[in-house]
Amino acid sequence: xxxxxxxxxxxxxxxxxxxxxxxxxxxxxxxxxxxxxxxxxxxxxxxxxxxxxxxxxxxxxxxxxxxxxxxxxxxxxxxxxxxxxxxxxxxxxxxxxxxxxxxxxxxxxxxxxxxxxxxxxxxxxxxxxxxxxxxxxxxxxxxxxxxxxxxxxxxxxxxxxxxxxxxxxxxxxxxxxxxxxxxxxxxxxxxxxxxxxxxxxxxxxxxxxxxxxxxxxxxxxxxxxxxxxxxxxxxxxxxxxxxxxxxxxxxxxxxxxxxxxxxxxxxxxxxxxxxxxxxxxxxxxxxxxxxxxxxxxxxxxxxxxxxxxxxxxxxxxxxxxxxxxxxxxxxxxxxxxxxxxxxxxxxxxxxxxxxxxxxxxxxxxxxxxxxxxxxxxxxxxxxxxxxxxxxxxxxxxxxxxxxxxxxxxxxxxxxxxxxxxxxxxxxxxxxxxxxx
Length: 436
Known about the structure:
globular; 0% strand; mainly alpha; 436 residues
């Protein structure tokens, strides 16, 4: 069987099962099992695929996923994240569009606590949108900043999706976690610049209102209590990796322990909070690892059948520039993100794209960063981006999907601008890596 026939049949079967409503993880596992039996010599092929998949799942590189989940759950359930938002509110003060800037600031800070962009969307949306509506904010300036900034959880460590990308793409997890920091901050700056410019041109979108002046002493006190301790958590994850003191797995463990200690010191680590955090983190981690198992098997299946190498040879033979090939791949990720979740996109595309990127001579870490920005862009892109429906669930009842689509589009354009900047200036990614 020719490689392209194998590729088309496997992808068609996979998409068909997903369209029938079978969960992503089980779709991959079923396709892997059937294809291995038919293409790799019957039960011998299935046994080999299972053995290789089990070996991949026993790798310590997957441990940070569960540990990052624990960090995020503890932060939210102990209400440390809410205190963080209150502190940001005190510092912003009387600025036009202050609640929109709070969304961006909260999105950046929440990203350092949890890699869950959907959770950030839900929290920021439920906390800020009602207040924005009350203050007369137009929907483009109430919904949009939250949709954009909540996605920064993908781009600022700890990011579970970055870890999964490293596992599926066989990239250094330490390098990918460090490489996403500056692009994530760049996206936050672009969002803030857009909000400032739009509020300056159209002041009616974000009416100004008086807020009580917070004394500097109170600001510093809130910062000392609510933000400075979190710097220890951030350092325990990012700093230890950057200094070469710990591996990503060890750093994730330190981050989880530090988070638990912080919650305990604040008197909020009750048995209920601890139990619910572990239970929720375990549920999410189990499903993620099941999906990763399907991805690993899928990647090996494509490799064993020759589909991966055939695809690489086909792409390398196209009469287009290598830069255009990279942009086509990134564009396809954004397009898929308009109707698929991040994990299925990663599982389907990365086993094909990463070998092509390496063959073209590009830095795969740089491509991985572009890939993650594209994932975030797709999640906020109409018509079916996942973040749009999370926002619909927490937005006021009079909010329509049309309102959400219109609010999201300027921030999708901001994401495209960030992709263009990172594409044109790879040093944004490669310079931090030189410090490792």
